[in-house]
Amino acid sequence: MTDAASPASVTTRLFGFAAALACLALGLITLYSSGVGLINPKLHRAVGFALAVIVAVAVSQKRRRATTPLHLFLDVALILAGLWSIWSFHFVQTEMETALYDVTTRDAWPALAGLVVFLELCRRLWGWGLFGVGTFGVVYLLFGQDLPGIMAHSGFSLKEVAEALWYNTNKGVFGSITNIVLSTVFIFIIFGVLLEGTGAGDTLLKFAFLATRRTRGGPAHAAILASSMFGTMSGSTVANIVGTGTFTIPMIKKRGFSPTFAAGIEATASSGGQIMPPIMGAAALVMADLTGVGYLNIIVAALFPALFYYFSLFSAVTVEARRQGIDVQEMTVDDQITRTDLINSVLFIGPILVVIGSLLAGLSTSAAGFYAVVVLLVLSVINPEVRGDPARIWHSFLKGAESGATLLIAIAAIGILVGSLDSTGLGLKLANVIASIRGESLFSALLVAMAGALILGMGMPTLPAYLIIILVMGPAIQELGVSMLTAHMFVFYYGVASSLTPPVAIAAYAAAPIARANPLMTAFMSFRLGMAKFIIPFIFAFYPTILIIEEFSLLPFLWIVARTCFCIWLFSSALSGFDRRKLTVPEIVIRFATAFTCLATDPMIHLPAIAIGLALIAFDVRAGRPKAATSEASQ
C-alpha cells in the first residue's frame, strides 16, 4: 500500500474536506449575520465554536510533520468531546430560557471536557503562551483558595467552575468577547484575506514604491508605506510580513541595507499596520464594543499616534541611509505604474470608502464590513488575474474563514481568563497593588503598567494580547485618572509592541528568515526601530488632546504635535548615532535627554530642552558641511 493510499493519508484528506465545509459554513454564517439578519446569540456562538473545533483540528494536522493512528484517534476524540461539550452549553442555555434551571454536577463534566479540548487546540495552534493563560484561569479557580496573600479566593466547586467558565454568556468561553468576534470581527478578517486574494496587495506595493521613489530609503520607505496600508486591512502582523516582506525585504537588501535592518524595518512597519486607521485590524473593533466609544471615534483618536509612529520609522530609515551613504536611485521599469495598476487601485480604494461611508451613514460596524466584502467581490472582476483564475476568490474566502476559526480558539482561552478574573476579583486586587506601588506619580504608575503589559502580551497575537492586558491592567490604569479610551489605547499600543519585544518577538522571527538574518539580532533591531511605539502611549496619556476626541484644543494640539515630531527626530538620530555625520557619545546622551525633556508638561523644562535640541541640530549641520565640501573637492 502506498503512502497516498494509507489510512492515515485518507483520513487526513477527509479531515481537510470536513474543514473546508466548516470554513464555508462559517463564512456564509458570517455574511448572513453581518448583512442579512440576526442569529440567536446562543446558537451563533455554539455553531461558531463547533465549526471552529473541526477547522482547528484540521489545521493542526496540516502543521504536523507526520500523522500516526494515535494522532488520528486523539483528533477524533477532540472533535467528539468538543461537540459534546458545545451541545451541552446549548442545551443548558435553552433550558435556562424556558424554565428555572440550575447547573448540576452532571453538567460540569462536559464543561470540563470542553475546557480541555479548547486548551489543547490553543496549545497546538497558538503555542504555550495562550495555553498557559487559559490553564491558569482553570487551575486558579479550582485551587486558588490555598494560595497566600491577595491570590487567595473563597474557593469554587467543579460545578461553580463550569458555571463561571462554560455556561455563562457574559464571561467565560461563550461570553461577550466571543460574541464581538463572531458578530463584528469575523467579517473584517474575511475582508482582509479577500483583499489580498484579489490582488490589491500587489497594487498597494506599486503605489508605495511610486510615492517613495525620490527618498534615500527607497524600498525601505516603500515597505513602511505599504505595510501601513496593508496591515490596517489584514489585522495580522505575520500575514502583513509575509504579504509584503517577501517582495520588499530583498529590494531593501539590494539597495544596500543590511539583512538585519531589512528584516527589522519590515517587522516594525508590519506590526504598526494594526494601529493605522481606518480599519486597524480586529482589535479596534473589539475596543469600540468594550469602551462603548463609536468606531469612527476610535479611528479619529488613533490617527495622530499612528502617524507619529510611522514618522519615527521614516526618520530611522533616513538616518540609516545617511549613515551607510545610500543615495536616491531611479525607479526600475518594473516599478512603473501601469494602466492595469491604476484600474486595480479601485480594489482597495472602493471597499475602504464603502467602510467609511457606511459608518458615516450610521450603519453598524459589521454591516460596513459586509458591504465592503460585497463591493470587493463585485470589483474583483476588473483584475485580469482574477478573471483568469476565479478560484483564487474561493480559496481566499475559505482562508479568511479559517483565520477566523483559529482566532476563535484563542478567544476561548481569553474567555477562560476573563471568567476567572471576574469570578475571583483578581484584576481589582492587582489594580490595588499597582496603585500602592505607584505612589503619587502618574509617570511611575504608567511605567509599571507598561512593563506588566509587555510581559502579559509577549509572544501573542495582537487581539489576545490586547484583551489580556486590558483585563488585568485596565482597571489599574483607569484609577490613575486617565479616561477609559486613553487606558484602552495605552494597552492596545503595548499589545502591538509586545510582538517586537525580545526575547519573544514574533514579528522579528517571522521577518528574519525572509532576509536570511539572525532572528535574535533582528528582534533587537526591531525593538530599536520601533522604540517610538513605547513612548507614544505616554504622550497621549499626558496630552489627551492628541486623541482629538478628548479635551481637544487647537493651539495645545499643534504645539504637542510639533514637539513630538522634534522629539522623534532627536530620538531616532540618537539611537542610530548618526545625523548628518557620526555623533559623539556626549552628543548621543544629550540628544536622548533632550528628546525626553521636550515632552515634559512644564514649560520651564520643555522650552529650554527645545532650544538645546535646535542648537544640537544646527551644530550637526554646520559640522557636517566641511566634510561634504571636502568630499566634493576630492572627486
Order of helices and strands: HHHHHHHHHHHHHHHHHHHHHHHHHHHH
Number of helices: 28
Low-confidence stretches: 628-635
The end-to-end distance, rounded to whole angstroms, is 74 Å
Relative strand content? under 5%
The secondary-structure class comes to mainly alpha
Total strand segments: 0
The count of domains is: 3
Oligomer: single chain
Rg calculated over all Cα atoms: 26 Å
Shape: globular
Largest sheet: none
Estimate the helix proportion, in percent: over 70%
Draw up the topology in text.
Layout: H1 7-35, H2 41-63, H3 69-98, H4 105-126, H5 128-143, H6 158-165, H7 176-197, H8 200-211, H9 219-234, H10 237-255, H11 259-272, H12 283-291, H13 295-323, H14 339-344, H15 346-360, H16 365-379, H17 384-388, H18 391-424, H19 426-438, H20 442-457, H21 462-478, H22 484-497, H23 506-515, H24 519-529, H25 532-542, H26 554-576, H27 585-597, H28 603-634
Helix pairs in contact: 1-2, 1-7, 1-16, 1-18, 2-3, 2-4, 2-18, 3-4, 4-5, 4-6, 4-18, 5-18, 7-12, 7-16, 7-18, 8-9, 9-10, 9-11, 9-13, 10-11, 10-23, 11-13, 11-23, 11-24, 13-25, 13-26, 15-16, 18-21, 19-20, 19-21, 20-21, 20-22, 21-22, 22-25, 23-24, 26-27, 27-28
Structural write-up:
By secondary structure, the protein is mainly α. It folds into 3 domains: 3-177, no CATH class; 199-337 and 456-542, no CATH class; 569-635, no CATH class. It has helices at residues 7-35, 41-63, 69-98, 105-126, 128-143, 158-165, 176-197, 200-211, 219-234, 237-255, 259-272, 283-291, 295-323, 339-344, 346-360, 365-379, 384-388, 391-424, 426-438, 442-457, 462-478, 484-497, 506-515, 519-529, 532-542, 554-576, 585-597, 603-634. α21 (462-478) crosses α22. The protein is globular. It starts with 6 loop residues before the first helix and ends with a helix. Mean pLDDT is 84; it is low at 628-635.
